[in-house]
């Protein structure tokens, strides 16, 4: 048997002392909101309440189900189906949620994730869809005008699997403007952007004009 060299021993010691999650994204800060322990929808408002149904599950807590077309007509071109969370209204944060599309498959099959809302015509949203184009599968800014894509990097598309909840993670640093979006793989973002138009505001869930379900929403402070 070959003797263990000092370099080899040092590598072993280093491997044993690095935490198992150290290669992943930095851990979140203080927990600000957890839908799994809420008891109702008092903290939520809906662009069109008739399009939504809510329920409580023993393991997952509050579940939001977007089940129909919305009658809401925004003043500028932007998503129709939105559930807004009244509090918290964080600036730098990490959002984690499980989301399932219950729509048919087509290029714009989507679910959306909103943040930084200052008004009905001022907010950001992440549109996760099957195929990328100027209006789909990107990070968008709505600033008192029709939405515009602000993603600096993004994939060619994101596949929603029938019957499956996918894990979505959004990291927002309001100081640097950085926005990172992760889908199932929490190591490699599917979208990136940088924008400082809005520093704080409401968070929301929904879709441009499709249907789906959301559960286990957690919002954390993002250490800066």
Index terms:
single chain, 224 residues, mainly beta, Jelly Rolls, nine-stranded antiparallel sheet, 1 helix, 16 strands, 43% strand, globular, disordered N terminus
What fraction of residues sit in β-strands?
35-45%
Backbone CA Rg: 19 Å
Q: How do the SSEs run, as a string of H and E?
A: HEEEEEEEEEEEEEEEE
Major sheet details: 9 strands, antiparallel
- Mean pLDDT over the residues: 90
Structural class designation: mainly beta
Plain-language structure description:
The chain has 224 residues and is mainly beta. It has a single domain (25-221), classed as Jelly Rolls. It has one helix and 16 strands. Strands 1, 3, 4, 6, 11, 12, 13, 14 and 16 form a nine-stranded antiparallel β-sheet that branches. The longest helix has 12 residues, at 6-17. The chain is globular. The N and C termini lie far apart (49 Å).
């Amino acid at each position: 048997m070959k003797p263990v060299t000092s370099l080899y021993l040092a590598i072993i010691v280093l491997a044993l002392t690095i935490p198992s999650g150290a290669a992943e994204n930095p851990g979140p800060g203080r927990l600000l909101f957890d839908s799994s322990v809420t008891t109702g929808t008092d903290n939520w408002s809906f662009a069109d309440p008739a399009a939504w149904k809510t329920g409580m599950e023993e393991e997952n807590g509050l579940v939001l189900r977007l089940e129909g077309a919305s009658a809401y007509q925004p003043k500028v071109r932007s998503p129709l189906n939105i559930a807004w969370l009244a509090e918290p209204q964080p600036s730098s944060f990490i959002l984690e949620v499980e989301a399932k599309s219950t729509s048919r498959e087509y290029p714009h099959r989507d679910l959306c994730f909103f943040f930084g809302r200052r008004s009905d015509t001022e907010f950001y949203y992440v549109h996760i869809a099957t195929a990328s184009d100027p209006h789909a599968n990107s990070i968008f800014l709505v600033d008192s005008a029709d939405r515009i894509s602000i993603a600096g990097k993004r994939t060619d598309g994101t596949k929603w699997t029938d019957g499956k909840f996918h894990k979505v993670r959004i990291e927002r640093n309001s100081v640097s403007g950085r926005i990172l979006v992760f889908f199932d793989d929490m190591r490699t973002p599917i979208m990136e952007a940088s924008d400082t138009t809005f520093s704080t505001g409401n968070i929301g869930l929904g879709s441009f004009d499709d249907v789906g379900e959301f559960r286990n929403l957690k919002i954390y402070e993002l250490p800066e």
